[in-house]
Amino acid sequence: MTGIVVLGSTNMDLVTYTARAPKLGETVTGREFVTVPGGKGANQAVAAARAGGAVAMIGAVGSDDFGTVLRHTLEASCVDTDLLRTAEGSSGTAHIVVDDDGGNAIVVVPGANGTVTDLGPGDEALITTADALLLQLELPLSAVIAGAEAARRHGVRTILTPAPAQPLPPELLAATDLLVPNEHEAAVLTGIADPHAAAGALLRQVPEVVITLGQAGSLHASRTTEPLLVPAPHVTAVDTTAAGDTFVGALAVALVEGRPLPEALRWASAAAALCVQRPGASTSMPYRTEIEAS
């Protein structure tokens, strides 16, 4: 059995490090530029695999050099790429500015990801083998909905990261078991800035929510339990680019392994804390031994 299937994006991250991000119409000088394999789907797949999960990836890379690197990066982390398509043309790219405080601003160009509009041959069969399906919103919504509904038909747990933040169709919410937004995404989805109140509003749409709160940790809420706030380890952030994806990947592994919820949230927070202390996306994600030792 494949423990975790990820239906999501693969991007090459084009990252510029600078003292501060430019304002509209302004030019600033950066100190470093790097290319790093990423994309929210691929990030979550790598994070889950490094955390010890058996992971398979559904999505698409381009026929360009970036596509070759993206596929190799997933395979190097032991992610099954048998159903990762190759689309003619460019791979997805993410253009990222990281400032001295570790904050980031990102522009995503979908490329090959935009060709994934539905499940392809073998995709649903693979989903049926999983304990959990991880979804994000960097693929066309039609594919995300198709994946979630396939998982629901076969009793597979769906974990949705609603990023980039956008209104969620009722049919996607109806097929979502666990929603994992950050504070900003929760506010966009509900119009409510306070995470506790936002969590309550989201529970009217999905049965379970985890809102990530950055340095403040994470907030779990469900329709059947009291809210649970789990603090995060105190660390100095270097680059927060893949922190949320690392959290979700590690959390999925912990839940699939049957860990108690408080332990699963602490474990995921430890993984994210290790991630933000390193530059890059997939390159910054910790391995299971590192998480266990932290």
TrEMBL record:
<comment type="similarity">
    <text>Belongs to the carbohydrate kinase pfkB family.</text>
</comment>
<dbReference type="InterPro" id="IPR002139">
    <property type="entry name" value="Ribo/fructo_kinase"/>
</dbReference>
<keyword id="KW-0808">Transferase</keyword>
<keyword id="KW-0963">Cytoplasm</keyword>
<dbReference type="Pfam" id="PF00294">
    <property type="entry name" value="PfkB"/>
</dbReference>
<dbReference type="GO" id="GO:0005524">
    <property type="term" value="F:ATP binding"/>
</dbReference>
<keyword id="KW-0479">Metal-binding</keyword>
<dbReference type="InterPro" id="IPR011877">
    <property type="entry name" value="Ribokinase"/>
</dbReference>
<keyword id="KW-0547">Nucleotide-binding</keyword>
<feature type="binding site">
    <location>
        <begin position="212"/>
        <end position="217"/>
    </location>
    <ligand>
        <name>ATP</name>
    </ligand>
</feature>
<keyword id="KW-0418">Kinase</keyword>
<feature type="binding site">
    <location>
        <begin position="39"/>
        <end position="43"/>
    </location>
    <ligand>
        <name>substrate</name>
    </ligand>
</feature>
<comment type="pathway">
    <text>Carbohydrate metabolism; D-ribose degradation; D-ribose 5-phosphate from beta-D-ribopyranose: step 2/2.</text>
</comment>
<comment type="similarity">
    <text>Belongs to the carbohydrate kinase PfkB family. Ribokinase subfamily.</text>
</comment>
<feature type="binding site">
    <location>
        <begin position="11"/>
        <end position="13"/>
    </location>
    <ligand>
        <name>substrate</name>
    </ligand>
</feature>
<dbReference type="InterPro" id="IPR011611">
    <property type="entry name" value="PfkB_dom"/>
</dbReference>
<dbReference type="InterPro" id="IPR029056">
    <property type="entry name" value="Ribokinase-like"/>
</dbReference>
<keyword id="KW-0067">ATP-binding</keyword>
<dbReference type="InterPro" id="IPR002173">
    <property type="entry name" value="Carboh/pur_kinase_PfkB_CS"/>
</dbReference>
<feature type="binding site">
    <location>
        <begin position="244"/>
        <end position="245"/>
    </location>
    <ligand>
        <name>ATP</name>
    </ligand>
</feature>
<dbReference type="GO" id="GO:0046872">
    <property type="term" value="F:metal ion binding"/>
</dbReference>
<keyword id="KW-0460">Magnesium</keyword>
<feature type="binding site">
    <location>
        <position position="138"/>
    </location>
    <ligand>
        <name>substrate</name>
    </ligand>
</feature>
<feature type="domain" description="Carbohydrate kinase PfkB">
    <location>
        <begin position="1"/>
        <end position="286"/>
    </location>
</feature>
<feature type="binding site">
    <location>
        <position position="284"/>
    </location>
    <ligand>
        <name>K(+)</name>
    </ligand>
</feature>
<feature type="binding site">
    <location>
        <position position="275"/>
    </location>
    <ligand>
        <name>K(+)</name>
    </ligand>
</feature>
<feature type="binding site">
    <location>
        <position position="241"/>
    </location>
    <ligand>
        <name>K(+)</name>
    </ligand>
</feature>
<feature type="binding site">
    <location>
        <position position="278"/>
    </location>
    <ligand>
        <name>K(+)</name>
    </ligand>
</feature>
<feature type="binding site">
    <location>
        <position position="245"/>
    </location>
    <ligand>
        <name>substrate</name>
    </ligand>
</feature>
<feature type="active site" description="Proton acceptor">
    <location>
        <position position="245"/>
    </location>
</feature>
<protein>
    <recommendedName>
        <fullName>Ribokinase</fullName>
        <ecNumber>2.7.1.15</ecNumber>
    </recommendedName>
</protein>
<keyword id="KW-0119">Carbohydrate metabolism</keyword>
<feature type="binding site">
    <location>
        <position position="280"/>
    </location>
    <ligand>
        <name>K(+)</name>
    </ligand>
</feature>
<keyword id="KW-0630">Potassium</keyword>
<feature type="binding site">
    <location>
        <position position="239"/>
    </location>
    <ligand>
        <name>K(+)</name>
    </ligand>
</feature>
<comment type="function">
    <text>Catalyzes the phosphorylation of ribose at O-5 in a reaction requiring ATP and magnesium. The resulting D-ribose-5-phosphate can then be used either for sythesis of nucleotides, histidine, and tryptophan, or as a component of the pentose phosphate pathway.</text>
</comment>
<feature type="binding site">
    <location>
        <position position="182"/>
    </location>
    <ligand>
        <name>ATP</name>
    </ligand>
</feature>
<dbReference type="GO" id="GO:0005829">
    <property type="term" value="C:cytosol"/>
</dbReference>
<dbReference type="GO" id="GO:0019303">
    <property type="term" value="P:D-ribose catabolic process"/>
</dbReference>
<comment type="subunit">
    <text>Homodimer.</text>
</comment>
<dbReference type="GO" id="GO:0004747">
    <property type="term" value="F:ribokinase activity"/>
</dbReference>
